[in-house]
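Section: Multi-chain targets

For targets with more than one molecule, the full set of components is provided together so that the structure can be written out for the assembly as a whole rather than chain by chain. Components appear in the order listed by the source. The example entry contains two components.
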Amino acid sequence: MAFDNETIDVLIGGYLSTDAAHEDYEAALASGGYLHGAVVVSKDLKGNLAVEQTDHMVREGAAGLGALGFAVGLFAPPLLAATAVGAVIGAGAGKLLHRRTASKLEEQAGATIPLGGAGLILAYPHSAAGKVEPAVTRAVQKAVGEAEGHHVQALKGAIADAQQKMAESST
Amino acid sequence: MSEPDRTRLPIRRPPFGGVSNRTLDGSKPDWNLIGHPEPPVGSPNVLLVLIDDAGFGNPSTFGGPISTPRYTRMAEAGLRYNRFHVTALCSPTRAALLTGRNNHAVGFGSIGELSSGFPGYTATVPRDCTPVPRVLAENGYSTAAFGKWHLTPDGQQGPAGPFDRWPNGWGFDYFYGFLGGDSGQWDPCLAENQKIIGTPEDFYDQENPYYLPDAMADKTIEWLHGVRAQDARKPFFVYFSTGCSHAPHHVAPEWADKYQGKFDQGWDRLREEVFARQKELGVVPADAELTARDAAFPAWDEVPDKLKAYYARQMEVYAGFSENADYNVGRVIDAIDELGELDNTLIIWIWGDNGASLEGAITGSFNELTMQNGIPLTDEMQLQLAERYGGIGAWGGQMMDPHYSAAWAWAGNTPFQWGKQVGSHLGGTRNPMVIHWPARITGTGALRPHFTHVIDIGPTILDIAGIPAPSHVDGIEQEPFHGVSFADSFTDPAAPEHHTQQYFETMGNRAMYKDGWWLAMKTPRIPWVLTPDALRPYAPGVWDPDTDPAELYYLPDDFTQARDLAASHPEKVAELRELFWAEAEKYKVLPLLATLSAFFGILPPMPDAVPVEYRGDVQNIMSGMIPRIYNHSYAISADLTVPAEGAEGVIVAEADHLGGFSLFVQDGKLTHTYSMMGVFIYRQQAEERLPSGEVTVRMEFAADAAKPATGGEVTLLVDGKTVGSGRMDHTVPIRFSAYAGMDIGRDNGGVVDLSYEDKKPFAFTGTVKKVTFDVKPHLSAQDEEGLHAVAQHGHAGHGLSA
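Its structure, encoded as tokens over all components, is:
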């Protein structure tokens, strides 16, 4: 497939612990599947943010994942869909997904990653999905988006698709 | 001096036997007037030990995997009772233990925090059922209780009492422990006698941190030494009631690490191993069958490999925690031995009050309160949350309040079915008991298979002390004991069984025992599930208890309840079912499911909803007594004096990072942190610094709706001006903590916001003059009624898991 006409997958994972996100991040890197880029962002219980990324796309002249936006609805597991003690406790947390900003990765992640939480974004050619996706085993919430087109356009589309699916899974 | 009349208490002072003339000339004193009641000659000391939330198959003394050498030492020099019974729930067993009467009859059909308007469920002992410690104290014993109490209603655990519901009111001269159903072992909020004393100062000692099990033993030994320093002869009665092995399972790693790898085989194999050892020891008959696994528990083979280490660590910590209890009870026994009084001390050591607890659900939890708050977390989520707070290696440490999987509890109740809350089966009602009394027990190391029950303990103690059951106390005629002494079995293995009939009832799960036959009537509800769907079949007008499945066992031939005979003995089923109803009426068990009445619209009167004000530095408000801020809008405001150089510290804080809130000043800015059970943590901070002088700060939570776990918007205000805001998507629907308290002007114990942990308790450096909670800023009458119902659901939910 020509570079400017490809199908890109973006996987978004949400985690309750930094350890789990890093475990999947490392597993994805070791999966043998080609990655356009990978980002793991976490925030500790005191509010300190940490970002780690292996952004191959920068090297390839395209925009990196961070510059494309990190408005991921991380950590919105279907936590309250069921309940105990006799009453339905309900509420989605999908609205975070709609808080897209154009600011830098850390600002975006700082706003979207909850204290103690972590998020992972992986971008890869659709042809690598068979290796990359199975490596992500610990996300408490996961969505995979897909888009075709020019490289950056495909990436943006795949991120948007993944976000949409994440939102749907949260409500 | 003649023997006093002990049937009417207090014992009357003897009449003056001397002479009082107009002057000392010819007058003769009677020194008996200044004496005090003394027990009958030869009355022994009594040490009554109760371990919490443990099962028949836990201690090695009864074949379990947990090393209990001190328990075994007592058993080998004393007696093992392998058919001893409890009530399947914490407070009911304790009430029965300390009164010698059936738990419902003394108001404890449910737990201490949960009092309701039916006679069997008031959580208040009637005055015609005077507790045994009071009887002993009135007869000249020194009495003391240490550790878990769990017999004081939730709203009565403060300085206003009433104190007849506290340990001193039950007849204990001294109490050191906690009033609720469970407690952190690192950071308890303690009571001493009639005062909440909060978290001990040693909690802040990083090198030698406070640990309640150690402190309980220390305090007991200190008390014993004090009594003996004053009186060399006066017998003592010590009730040593451990918080172990109830959640949170807190113990240092060196205890848990002893069991590393010991549970990798899983719960199914563990049961088989324990069962084999039980037969070798003889505590289970050779012909007994191991009961089958109910479908409510997954097979170990079904657990994903990646999660097996998580599950195994849960049990390693539980085991280490339990072994530590054995160690600390041993320290108390050694201290008695060192006093030279072990021979004439009757030790009654009961390993568990309701079987092991199933309340961790299948997943177990890094925070026991996630279950009570109805937060459905998968095991992967639980593992990740454990990682957030230090990883599974830190399970048992200060950062988590862990509970293990229900499947481990079920294995801990080997060889029986079910566990805590299930009063219909032996998993929740049969626990090990060891009796040690060298002065009287000579056939040591023997087994006693007598059917005995927790209501027999009080009458047995009085029997061996030579003290009659009082007919009147404080002028009030007394209800006779329902239990019966089994003291004759101490010395006579052939002594007849005196306890031949007993009802059981917990949360609608019920049983009727008579002459070896046991009718088990378990409601189909899984004990840890309280969803609307699970409760709906029990609604008034819907539930017919007699249609519940009935199982019939003949225990002399079937020790474990493995062979259901109901189909072949319908007449026995009918007979025992009718007998149960008669006993239930006699002992105030009715109405069944009174504990769940709130779920079916039967609610107590609504409390006053006036603003709650705290002046001065009020400390350690018990978690069941904080203002009603759950599930709706509320506001917290505080009047402060801020010095010219500024101030920092906590204005008001409830509980800790695993559930709670804190309004504080950090870096000169007003800050609010809210922990939704350690799962979600929200923080909002002012954008400008706090001014100096007289300042009013306010935190407003505007709920999306008055509904359980509502999200909403937070606004921070200083002197009426908005200085910060933020959103909280989820809030706590039921209860922040089982044990941690609320404080004004500081954050005692574990802190809510870990960013100030290194400054704990982070006392406010200015002055907090007043804190006001407005718990009804925006509610309609309809909302208020709905929230009242939800609050009662939560109260009942907490009650079912305490």
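The first strand of chain A starts at residue 6 and ends at 15.
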